[in-house]
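Course assignment 3, question 2. Fill in each field.
Student: A.L.
Task: Predict the tertiary structure for the chain below.
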Amino acid sequence: MKKLVHRFKTVPAVSARTSFFALLLFSVVACADAGTERQTERKPVDRNESAEVSDKISSLSDKILDKPNNPNLYISRALAYVDQGMYNLALKDVDRAMVIDSTVSFFHAVRGEILFTSGELRGARLSLEKAVEYDEENTEALLKLGEVNFLLRRYPEAVRAIDAALQVNERLAKGYFLKGYIFKEIGDTAKSVSSFRTAAEVNPEYFEAFMELGHIFAFRGDSMAKDYIESALEINPNSAEALYHLGLYHQSKGEIGEAAEVYENMVRRDPNAYLGFYNLGYLYLTESDDYATALAYFDTVLTLQPQAIDAMYNRGVCFEELGDEEAAAEIFREVLKNDPQHTLAAKGLSRILE
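Answer field:
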C-alpha cells in the first residue's frame, strides 16, 4: 500500500476580514497632523517603561487635584492608562474629560480607539462618528471609522469614511491599504490590487501592502508574486512571514532547491519558525528520501509546537521508511489518540498491521 505523507504546510485560507483583524495595531497619538501619516507599532512595555508610566499616572493625578476642570489632564491620564492596558480606567477619564467639554473631536477619537481595542466595535463606531461630526477633517478618526465599519461588514460606509480621509490628505497610504482589504473581502480583486499598489507607491516602505500583493499574485500562480514578496523582504529582511511565503512560492513552482534555501534562511533568522522546519522536513522526506534528516526537522517542530499533529504523523512515516515499524505504529496510534479523524494515520497503522 502506498505510504502517504501529510503535505507541506501552507497558511490556512482566511477571509480578508479575518486576516485584517490580526494586522490591526492600536495606536493613539496626542495630536493629528493632517499632512503626516503615522504608522506606529506598539511595542511591549518593559519594566522600566511600566514604572515610568506609573510615575506619569501619579503625577497626572496630582495635577488633576490641582486643576480638576482641565479636560486635557484627564485625556493625558487616559492615554497613560491605555499604555498600562487599563482600558476601563482610561474610558472613565475620557468620559470625565467629555463632561467638561464634549465638543473636542480628539476626545471622541480616543474613546473610539479604546473601545475598538476592547473589542466593542459598535461603541467605537458611535464614538468615531462623533469625532468626525466635530471635525470632518480628522483623518485618523476617519480611517479608524473605516476599519471599524469594515469589521462590522458595513463595506460602503467603510469606503466612504476612508475616501473622506483621502480627500483631506491624498498621501495617506493606510487609506489605500484599507480599501485594498475591503475590495479583497468583497471579491473585487482588480480594485484590491490597484489599492494595494497605490499604498505601496505612496509609501514604498509599506511592508504589508507588498505582502498582500504577493498573496494575491501567488494565488493566481503569477510570477509577479515573487517580485512583491522580495520587495517586502527588502523592507524587512528578517520577516519570517515573507521568507515563508517566498519558500512556498518556489515550492509551488517545483523549485525545490530554492525553496529549501529560503526555509533554511528563515529558521536561521528565527529559530522558533516551526513552519519553516516543517516544510524542510517535508522536502527531505518527499524530495530527497533523506528520512533521518526529515525526522530531525519534525522533531524540532514538535519541540516548538508539541501539538503539531501533522508533524507527528510524518515522524511516523519517517520511522516506517527507516524500517522501524514498531515505532511508526506507536506514533500513528498517538496521532489517532489526539485526532481520531486523522485519515492518514489510520491508513498508516492499517498498512503496518496488514
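Instructor remarks: The mean pLDDT is 88. DSSP finds 19 helices and no strands in the chain.
Grade: pending
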